[in-house]
Amino acid sequence: MRSSLQSPSSSSRLLFSFVHAKSSMVYHYSSLSLIDRATSASSPTSEFVDASPSSECPSGNKFPNFRPLASETTQLSHVFIVNNLLSHRNDPQAALEYFKWLEKQRGFVLEIGDSFFVLLNILGSSSTHYAAFRNLINNFLSGDFALSGVALHDRLIDCSERYGFGLRPRTLSYLLSEYVISRRYKDAEDCFYALVSRGIMNSVRIVNNFLSSLVMANMIDVAHRIFTDVVAKKISYDGSTVEMMMRASLREGKLQEADKYFKEAKQGGVELGPRVYCTAIRGACLKLETDVASGLLSEMKGRGWVPSEGIYTVVICHCVKQRNMMKALVLKDEMINSGHRMNLIVATSLMKGYYQQGNLQSSLALFDKVVEDGLVPNKVTYAVLIEGCCENGYMEKARTLHLQMKSAGIQPTVFIVNSLIRGYLKFHSMDQAMELFDEAVNDGIANVFTYNNLISYFCDRGKLEGAYRIWDKMFYKGVEPSKVSYNIFILGNCRIGNMDAALDLLSEMQSKSLAANVVTYSILIDGHFKKGETEKAMGLFDHMLGIGVVPNDYAFNTVISGLCKVGQTIIARDKMDKFVAMGFSPACMTYNSIIGGFIKEGKIDSALAIYKEMCKAGHTPNTVTCTILVDGLCKSENIELALKVHRGMHSKGIEMDLAMYNALIDAFCKRRDMRSACEFFDEMLEVGLTPTTAVYNTMISGFRDLYNIEAALGVFKRMKKEGIQCDLATYTTLIDGLLKMGYSQLASDLYQEMLSKDILPDIVTYSVLIRGMCDKGLMDSACSILEEMHKRSVSPNEVIYNTLIAGYFKVGNLQEAFRLHDEMLDRGLVPDDSTYDVLVSGGLK
User: Fold this and answer.
1) Does residue 57 come out as left (phi exceeding 0), alpha (psi in the -120 to 50 range) or beta?
2) Contacts within 8 Å (CB) and 24+ apart, 630-633
3) pLDDT at position 440 over 80
4) Averaged over 385-411, what is the pLDDT?
5) By three-state DSSP, how is residue 708 classified?
């Protein structure tokens, strides 16, 4: 039966009659009741209460031990009430019913006295009467009494000792918890430390309930402070206490503190159960210490505990996140051997781990296995596999999984759709990407990221018409572009030099209350620099500062790099010092820009000075730094210093890239030192670098210049064997070498091979062919090549006309030579000194 004390209206009336005296009376906390004092003052009979059974006492002799006084004007004394309560000390419900009955008596008012604390002790001893205890304390604490928490606690303990209740942990726990619930945290702490000072805080239950109340009230800092004192004062606590405090620390992200609690308890000999170990394992995983987590799992097994499937799942998933697939797979086997089955979370995590290692086939095989074993894949499982397929170019399989997912009644999320679209775009399947995009738009699931994917794709390739189509559709469908959308589109326009459109987008962006950020301004500043609009770039930078947009290191580097690119490296160097005063931290990239700028301007000494300054400032040169220096030194024919930089890279452990080797190889080829060039070519292979087409072309040019056409053809054959693509420069160089050596047929064969690969000749190739034919006196072949140029709409230049004119002079056909001179003039080509040398002397110098 529910006690009337649990009713708000009833409990508040009872508390009023129980603890509040009339407003005209002075409160005090003696053992005398208001009725006792009223009797001594000869109060009117109306102030007396008749406690005879015939009064309002419940019928049926419900309170047989509540004996009234024998006097005709019987008065309920304080002692009388206490004695009646004590007679039912083991029957909390009867005590409540008695006070309900007292509440109904006309004019009955009772002060705080032993009766109140006896009732609290009786209710506190019962595990089923916490609500009644709570209501009494709660109403008391919300009243006007100035009784401190410690005073209330002292009275409660004093009463429990005088009436033989003993110090019951439940009662004290109830009291401390109610202080916390009532937000009287200071009283709660005072009571706790009062118990400690009296030497009676020896109950683990009290400690745990109190700390639990603090944690639940989000007073975690107070809980931590009190627990620290509990440990320091050697107050009893157990594994539950440790687990509670560890969980509270983890909830606040205080991972080290949680670990400290665990280790201190373990070293202090506290009996720690599986739950504490599981909490410690979760903490270790959050700290990314999966080896520690695995060790704790082993420790649990060593103690005879079987770790739960849940804790295995946590550790396995964190191992995968840290790319430790070997450990994840070992733990998966342990989990299964411990009697647990593979669950979908573990399986999905392992699938992701496999494909992140580049082992997509194992991901797909595991998917098939878990489906065969009865697990039903969910959206997350499909999302992981589809993303893996898209990342690795398995677009057909990705699409199959997408359709399989839909046929299973699982609606693909926009995340999955976006993964597929990015995959199709990445592997140049534009039609499929657009088909999926249109489907997503029609289904109403396309979000701003879906549109951004396509806008970015078109902008990256300079296809702004396509980007504008997607942009317009986004507006038509009511999808608001984000700041990222505008930045992508602004970047696309800047890349093709369309700065007016980019600035219009900036204005449109701001009109939509999307404040341009430092990325937006950095893109625009870089765009102006690339067009050579230095003043506009710097003006925009100053505007950015003026409106309060704080530049980051990327913005500072954009300005420095831009100035270097437009030949203002000295100004860039000065700007760097000013930017440092604004909080900029120059990095290796910054120094690389300035070094490259000076080298581009031919100021090698200045570049070397910046290099030394960079090293002195504590910045270790990287591969780009050294490549810039080596390339610049080689082009300025300072080979010895370039080799010194190269050797310095070796000693500092800096990796060398293809660009550096190509610079060194090219330098030695130009010096006709093919032995050194070949040595660097071999060194490049030894360090694991694969030569590019450009590197092979450099070697072929080097041998061609030495008229070693056999070696050049050998490099060409090796190039094709290694699967390196031969480009126009490759064929043009070889054809030139073959013609110079008199191998006209081989040159013709190579030319036909080039055409068969859809590699079309350019003006340089035609110049080589015509010169070769003219040198051999094959003027008809030379003229046929000229006709081919006309058919391909390739206009001959002065060099080609000079070569043909010289060729006809050589074979004595002066009429044709002068005709070509007139044709040259008709085409708007201005004869140069070489032309007139031919006409006067009959040959090219």
Assistant:
1) beta
2) 630/660, 630/663, 630/664, 631/599, 631/659, 631/660, 631/663, 632/596, 632/599, 632/604, 632/607, 633/604
3) yes
4) 91
5) coil
Most confident of 75-89, 183-197, 620-634, 693-707: 693-707
How far apart (Å, rounded) are the C-alpha atoms in residues 404 and 502?
43
What is the average per-residue pLDDT within 741-748? 89
Cα–Cα distances in Å, from 297 out to 5, 289, 806? Answer: 50, 13, 88
327 contacts 298 by C-beta, under 8 angstroms: no
Going from the C-alpha of 43 to that of each of 24, 34, 412, the distances in angstroms are 15, 11, 83
Rounded to an integer, the average pLDDT of 369-384 is: 92
How far apart CA 482 and CA 480 sit, in angstroms, is: 6
Give the span between the Cα atoms of 546 and 656, in whole angstroms: 43
For residue range 240-277, list pLDDT tens digits in order: 989 999 999 999 889 999 999 999 999 888 889 999 99
pLDDT of residue 804: 87
C-alpha triplet 371, 375, 380: angle, nearest 5°: 90
Q: Which two tokens stand for residue 776?
A: 């051999």
- pLDDT for the residue 433: 92
- Greatest alpha-carbon pair distance for the chain in Å reads 160
pLDDT score of 112: 59
Q: What are phi and psi of 507, to 5 degrees?
A: -65, -40
Residue entry with tokens 């928490």: 149
Is pLDDT above 60 for 23?
Answer: no
Please give the domain boundaries of the chain with CATH numbers for all domains. 761-845 (1.25.40.10)
Q: 699-714 pLDDT, tens per residue?
A: 999 999 999 999 999 9
Residue 149 in tokens: 């928490």
Out of 201-215, 369-383, 681-695, 714-728, least confident range: 201-215
Cβ–Cβ under 8 Å, residues 420 and 398: yes
Tokens of 99: 């006070």
Mean pLDDT of the region 25-50: 31
For the chain, give the percent of residues with pLDDT over 90. 47
| Nearest in space to 772 (alpha carbons), one of 797, 737, 799, 818 | 737
Q: d(Cα 157, Cα 194) in Å, to the nearest integer?
A: 11
Query: Could you give the CA distance from residue 313 to residue 669 in angstroms, rounded to a whole number?
Result: 60
Contacts of 504 (CB under 8 A, 6+ apart): none
* Count, residues in the chain: 845
CA 792 to chain centre: 53
Secondary structure class of 260 (helix, strand, coil): helix
> ∠ CA 807-813-818 to the nearest 5 degrees?
85
Tokens 């000869």 sit on residue:
42
Matching residue, tokens 């056909």 = 813
How far from the centroid of its chain's Cα atoms is residue 137's Cα?
A: 49
* Residue 148 banded pLDDT, cuts 50, 70, 90: low
d(CA 698, CA 709): 14
Helices of type H across 512-637: 518-530, 534-546, 553-565, 569-581, 588-600, 604-616, 623-635
Tell me the chain's radius of gyration from C-alpha atoms.
Answer: 45
The closest alpha carbon to 534, from 500, 502, 564, belongs to: 564
- Residue 785's CB is within 10 A of a number of other CB atoms, namely 24
- 687: number of Cβ within 10 Å: 10
Strand (E) or helix (H) holding 822: helix 814-826
How crowded is residue 542: how many other Cβ atoms within 10 Å of its Cβ? Answer: 9
Q: What is the pLDDT of residue 167?
A: 64
Angle between helices 569-581 and 553-565 (to 10 degrees): 160
Highest-pLDDT range among 135-139, 245-249, 519-523: 519-523
- Residue 652: phi and psi, rounded to 5, are -90, 0
Residue carrying the six token digits 């559709």: 473
Residue 213 to residue 656: CA distance in whole angstroms: 62
